[in-house]
Here is the input.
Amino acid sequence: MKTLLALLGLTLALSAADGSALYQKCAACHGQKGEKAALGKSEVIAGWKSDKTLDALKGYKAGTRNTKGMGALMKGQTATLSDADMKAVAEYIATLK
Here is the structure.
């Protein structure tokens, strides 16, 4: 039983989205610490609360958000992210200062 629980815990840990790794795709425009205005247009995202980032990512993915003309570009960037991925990235961004 202990072995089964240990394997279940390991499986869950391995399947959990890694916000830091996922964020590397974002870093090209937003900076390693979220310190840049992407393409000179976006807000600096470092320190955004996770719910604000999650709402933004979901809006971009759905095509309902087009802040400063970035909707199409961000729709492409978020297209392959699952809900868990978006949550993990949002939580990671909240740690950036």
About this structure: The two ends are 43 Å apart (CA to CA). DSSP finds five helices and no strands in the chain. Residues 19-93 form a domain with the Cytochrome Bc1 Complex; Chain D, domain 2 fold (CATH 1.10.760.10).
